[in-house]
Design goal:
- The chain has 245 residues and is mainly α.
- The chain folds into two domains: 2-122, no CATH class; 173-244, Orthogonal Bundle (DNA polymerase, domain 1), CATH 1.10.150.
- Helices cover 69% and strands 2% of the residues.
- It contains ten helices and two strands, in the order H-H-H-H-H-E-E-H-H-H-H-H.
- Strands 1-2 form a two-stranded antiparallel sheet.
- Strand 1 (149-151) and strand 2 (157-159) form a beta hairpin.
- Helix 2 packs antiparallel against helix 3 (56-83), helix 3 (56-83) packs antiparallel against helix 4 (91-116) and helix 6 runs antiparallel to helix 8 (200-209).
Length: 245
């Protein structure tokens, strides 16, 4: 965000740019550096226990760290983002500013939600579920204005499920390989190309979003009603088993 402001609004918003510079400095010192130190400490603690989710001292450290990072998230990012208002007659630049700001705000909210689940008791399934839910819930306000309505057989209007854009980076490689192998075997059994069973985009979407039910599954790019009806139960079972590991 800061580089975009400096590139186009150096003279119009000098105070705002300075605040973003200060925010970057605080982020490095109070979040990034501290998180690196905490990660090192966490790795040492994990190496000393076979059941980290049942280790009281480890749980306490995670709770305290979550509280610290939630507070810093609010102090460093939230107030500045809430008051960032930049206007220009150049529609293309305005669009870039709005998109960058929206992405930044989304990232902050998602981090906040996943940290909040660590304030009670940290477990991997709870964390992954909170992360998946945060990703899905963030998309609802973005797409609500653009929801298209379809007509069913009786002529009654109903909302089409809005799709969620997902990063192409594979966040859970083990689950991705499991889904890919399942798709390959299924394609062989039915003598079909693998992409007919499930597209690459859909595989990555399922892997990254970890859907918990059919409603979440159908909102993933490349997953349609027929896919959910045919394979939804198997897919959700694999995702559920992975999350519970």
């Amino acid at each position: 965000m800061c580089w975009l402001l400096k590139e186009h609004f150096q003279n119009l918003y000098p105070e705002l740019i300075n605040e973003y510079r200060q925010m970057e400095e605080r982020f490095r010192n109070e979040i990034l550096n501290v998180s690196e130190q905490f990660q090192s400490q966490l790795e040492r603690l994990l190496s000393k226990t076979e059941n980290p989710e049942e280790e009281p001292f480890l749980q306490e450290r995670i709770k305290k760290a979550a509280g610290y990072f939630i507070e810093k998230n609010n102090l460093i990012f939230k107030e500045l983002l809430d008051k960032t208002a930049v206007e220009t007659d150049n529609k293309e630049i305005q669009k870039r500013i709005n998109n960058t700001l929206d992405l930044f705000q989304t990232e902050v909210r998602q981090k906040q939600k996943t940290l909040e689940v660590c304030l009670t008791q940290f477990t991997v399934p709870a964390y992954l579920s909170a992360k998946s839910k945060a990703l899905i819930e963030e998309e609802i306000p973005k797409h609500k204005k653009n929801e298209k309505t379809m007509k069913n057989g009786k002529g009654v209007a109903c909302n089409a499920p809005t799709k969620i854009a997902v990063s192409k980076d594979i966040l859970h490689p083990e689950l991705y390989e499991q889904l890919r192998s399942w798709r390959f075997l299924l394609a062989q059994e039915q003598n079909l190309p693998a992409y007919v069973i499930l597209s690459q985009m859909a595989l990555i979407g399922i892997t990254n979003l970890l859907p918990q039910d059919a409603a979440q599954l159908i909102r993933i790019q490349g997953v349609g009603k027929v896919t959910v009806e045919k394979y939804g139960e198997e897919i959700l079972e694999m995702v559920g088993a992975y999350v519970r590991l």
